[in-house]
Automatic annotation (TrEMBL):
Residues 404-415, 423-451 have a biased composition (Basic and acidic residues). Keywords: Membrane, Transmembrane, Transmembrane helix. The keyword Nuclease does not apply. The keyword Transport does not apply. The chain crosses the membrane at residues 30-56, 132-153, 159-179, 200-224, 236-256, 268-289, 301-324, 336-355, 375-397. It comes from Cutibacterium porci. InterPro entries: DUF6350. This is Integral membrane protein.
């Protein structure tokens, strides 16, 4: 009990302290545009210095290489994360190291968030949309200028790719960071029916990518001995071995996307005329990179590997559940339409990620490496759209059936209540009529004169019979009126409006 209390207290303290830090204005005397520019430049400089620091020990151990060449290599590594091909040891590599791209996006997002946070405080926590757009524009401009400078330093001819890559990364990281720093929800102005699409699409894509990462991890565990053996055979020890591990980590997200394409069915290629898929594997000569030891051996269909086909289906079901959860009143028509739209967008996103993981590892046979397009995009769109649409249709139809069943149950309950009310009303009317009849008889007996009771017995009997028939008729009218009033009484459940 003491431990749980202390844990909850410490967690509450961490949350409260983080809220205090978030509400506290950064102690920066500069204007917010200067803060945005400097933060973006510092984030880029940190990446470049990290690349240069990795290369410098190799430069110290080698002869015949000038220091400017080392700096140009650091610039080339930074540009490779933006999609620019790079030449390493005479090999032209066009496969994007998405690990470096993720680092650029995360650092840029954090830098832009800091600048937008300063803007948020300077405008009394109510910045306009125009100011937030200016933060994104400044951050993107710094990213593009840095790409141009590094492209000039690396003497690369791929200027267009460098600018386009920097523009996309700057806009993406800047938009997310500015929204977080200015406490603005980018989806708040969406129509009500579309507010569940971002979470549904994001969850579907995240589950697909997580499944591909899990498939890669399982492959590394199964073929771990082969991976370690290849690492020892390369003879990379010390700093060289550490750099080799970093190079493989840089392409690890790319291979995770290969795992996602592998789960979709078409798989990926590692060379011209090759394919790796649960339906079969056909590979040629593979470079002796240790992480490539996780590739499966050549062979036909693997029944056990086909179980991974369930991951995209589960991802689509999760997306369908989330999109229907955002609209509790949606029926099967709207559910099927929104489910199809969510699956379509998710499939397009998975296809774009697969396109980013496609490239080359040299000329000739290894000029085609990565996901097999457009088969991967087509399978992603088809599977996710179909399953999400069926999921939305099923949830909407279940809601409709439940509403009809509940309506029938309410009608039966209403009829039972009306019968009970009619029975109670009939009993009350009979009791009331009997009481009235008894009172009338008692009053007639008291009013009769004692002298005329013996002389007119026949007349009294006739009058009593007439009174009895009149009372019975009145009793029947009272019972009929009570039953009609009970049936005409409004039911409480009918006044409740139900969806």
């Amino acid at each position: 009990m003491v431990r749980s209390g202390s844990t909850s207290t410490s967690s509450r303290f961490v949350i409260e302290s983080s809220e205090v830090d978030e509400s506290r204005e950064p102690r920066v005397p500069w204007p917010w545009p200067v803060v945005v520019v400097v933060a973006a430049a510092v984030a880029i400089l940190v990446q470049w210095l990290a690349f240069a620091g990795i290369i410098v020990p190799e430069w110290l151990a080698s002869d015949g290489r000038s220091f400017p060449n080392i700096l140009a290599t650091a610039s080339s590594l930074w540009l490779s994360g933006h999609g620019v091909p790079i030449d390493i040891i005479g090999v032209h590599i066009g496969l994007i190291p998405l690990g470096l791209t993720c680092v650029s996006v995360l650092l840029g997002e954090e830098a832009c968030r800091y600048g937008a946070r300063v803007l948020w405080h300077r405008h009394h926590k109510k910045p306009s949309g125009r100011r937030v757009g200016e933060v994104v524009a400044l951050h993107t401009t710094v990213e593009v200028v840095a790409a141009i400078i590094m492209a000039a330093g690396a003497a690369t001819s791929h200027w267009v790719i460098a600018v386009v890559g920097a523009l996309l990364i700057g806009l993406g990281s800047g938009f997310v960071g500015a929204c977080r720093g200015a406490h603005i929800s980018p989806f708040s102005r969406l129509p009500r029916w579309a507010r569940g699409l971002p979470s549904a699409v994001g969850s579907t894509v995240a589950v697909c990518v997580a499944g591909g990462s899990a498939a890669l991890a399982v492959a590394l565990l199964i073929h771990g001995d082969r991976v370690i053996q290849l690492h020892h055979q390369m003879g990379a020890t010390g700093w060289g071995g550490f750099c080799l591990i970093l190079v493989q980590l840089a392409w690890l997200p790319t291979m995770a996307l290969w795992g996602t394409a592998w789960m979709m069915g078409p798989g990926f290629a590692f060379g011209t005329g090759t394919f790796v898929s649960p339906l079969g594997t056909h590979l040629g000569i593979v470079p002796a990179l240790p992480v490539l030891g996780a590739l499966p051996s050549n062979g036909p269909l693997n029944p056990a590997a086909c179980a991974w086909f369930a991951v995209p289906v589960i991802a689509a079901i999760i997306g369908g559940v989330l999109i229907m959860k955002s609209l509790p009143e949606a029926g099967f028509e709207i559910g099927a339409g929104l489910g199809a739209l969510s699956g379509l967008i998710s499939g397009v996103v998975v296809g774009v990620l697969g396109l980013l993981s496609r490239g080359s590892l040299g000329d000739g046979r290894l000029s085609e490496v990565g996901t097999i397009m457009p088969a991967t995009a087509g399978c992603a769109v088809g599977i996710l759209t179909l399953v999400t649409m069926l999921c939305g249709f099923a949830i909407g139809l279940t809601r409709r059936l439940r509403s009809e069943e509940s309506r029938q149950v309410r009608a039966e309950r209403r009829q039972e209540r009306q019968k009970k009310r009619a029975i109670k009303a009939e009993e009350k009317a009979r009791n009331r009529a009997a009481k009235k009849q008894q009172d009338k008889r008692q009053q007639s007996v008291e009013k009769k004169p004692d002298a005329g009771q013996e002389s007119e017995p026949i007349q009294d009997e006739a009058s009593s019979d007439t009174a009895n028939s009149t009372d019975d008729e009145a009793l029947g009218h009272d019972i009929y009126d009570s039953i009609q009033s009970a049936q005409d009484a409004p039911d409480d459940e009918d006044t409740i409006r139900r969806p």
